[in-house]
Amino acid sequence: VKLGSCNTPKPSFFDFEGKQKWEAWKALGDTSPHQAMQEYVAAVKKLDPSWNPQTTEKRGKESKTVFGGPVVSSLYQEETIREEDKNIFDYCRENNIDYVTKAIQSKKVDVNVTDEEGRALLHWACDRGHKELVSVLLQNAADVNIQDGEGQTALHYAATCEFLDIVELLLQSGADPGLRDQEGCLPAEVTDSKAITRALQQHGAGEP
């Protein structure tokens, strides 16, 4: 945990322990990195005394945290990446709209390119809450229903992180709220936001 702000997709709907840990982290808000780390560790240890904050499951250059689920586990590593070592996903994570736009429009990068976990630029932009970048990607023919390696769409990411404005933008752009991930979950089933649930149901998601 490097920052207090939680921009990571919530764990699977059925991963109750992971969901509790995610909620504990999200509740910290925008605290300082050091304070966030201390408070988070303390909160999670209350939930699970056996939890080891050093435990990670390495997956290539990315890693999965103990939360489980499609977690963006290289959180904020872009802060230490040298400019010459950055890739398109790093620029997307840091909301560098100009760079991403030029790269896509010049055909240097496919707008639907995916990382090692199957996450497209649209997944990353939704995960970080970058609404303007989401709009730019959609305007440049990003697949609004593209699914990551675990079957989650951009709607799943925006819903789990409770970005209502992005959920609405995706729906207006043709996102299908009826697409399920590999665990059978709809976007409406992975959010605690009543407003997001209503928005998804109004677009035909049905009852979770």
From TrEMBL:
It comes from the Eukaryota. Gene3D superfamilies: 1.20.80.10, Ankyrin repeat-containing domain. SMART domains: ANK (SM00248). It holds the Pfam family Ank_2. ANK repeats lie at residues 117-149, 150-182. InterPro entries: Acyl-CoA-binding_protein, Acyl-CoA-binding_sf, Ankyrin_rpt, Ankyrin_rpt-contain_sf, FERM/acyl-CoA-bd_prot_sf. Keywords: ANK repeat, Lipid-binding, Repeat. One of its GO terms (molecular function) is fatty-acyl-CoA binding. Residues 1-53 form the ACB domain. Transmembrane segments: none annotated. PANTHER family: ACYL-COA-BINDING DOMAIN-CONTAINING PROTEIN 6. This is Acyl-CoA-binding domain-containing protein 6. The lineage of its organism: Eukaryota, Metazoa, Chordata, Craniata, Vertebrata. The gene is Acbd6.
